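Task: complex structure prediction.
Instruction: return structure tokens for all chains below.
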Amino acid sequence: MSDVSASSAPAGWEHVYSGKVRDLYTSPEHPGRMLVVASDRISAFDQVLEPPVPGKGETLTALTLWWFGRLAGIRNHLVDDRGAVPAEVRGRAMLVRTLRMHPIECVVRGYLTGSGWREYQRSRSVCGVPLPDGLRDGDRLPEPIYTPAFKAELGQHDENIDFARTVELVGEETAAELRRASLEVFGQASEIAEQRGLLLADTKFEFGVDDEGRLVLGDEVLTSDSSRYWDAEAHASGRVESFDKQAVRDWMAERWDGTGTPPPLAPEVVERTTARYRELLARLTG
Ligand code: ATP
Ligand code: MG
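Output:
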């Protein structure tokens, strides 16, 4: 995908992979480590959109670093050696331990919306988790639910799966561990967010295994790319004020039928997204 990022590898680092948003590099000087650089690219509906959102990579990185510093009792992939992060990507890069990633997107939902809401309307359940009747879009769930997805290859859509399918993919013990750890982190994060007047509606984690066989929380965490955050006060009065890429999703949904190349984002959508991401960072960390 990214010959561009490959050619702009930081000095001493080799490009190994680019996802929709992040570029990964390794270096013979840092065995077992990876440099994860968050770009300003934005994706929605599994598409990378144009143009990029200025400052987004830095905001995502700052959010992830802040959350890793708050979460207790959960091992994460961060290597605390900021000196090893090359100057040209400082602020939007993390040095991490290379993990063997589980092919599962560990989604946790505290509120019903998005694809969860659509599935609920058809089946009264989400990913095999039965829910009470009468819930509306945006309602708080009786308790947070774990609704994993199978991580698709680049360019494919992730597929919502139930717990039984997760067991087939990663085994009983790991499946249970992923669910337990995801719900635990979600619980901690929701509480911290609520103290700041924010609701964590849903989020997605990725876990991997380190070379000692231990489960480690990887990727980005609790960012506005991987999560839905809502203003608590607005929610209480029946409105949705979100600090994530909902504005982009809504704008796209009105203008793109899902085939061919998506239209470039209007400047006001890009500006609004930058502002929302910045405000989330300020409200959480300020
Ligand atoms: P895809 O993984 O399909 O490319 P994506 O578009 O979400 O999805 P990005 O988030 O842009 O990808 O790239 C980050 C990639 O790095 C992901 O594939 C993620 O699984 C992987 N990753 C994150 N942390 C680690 C780690 N510690 N070790 C190895 N891989 C990691
Ligand atoms: Mg990702």
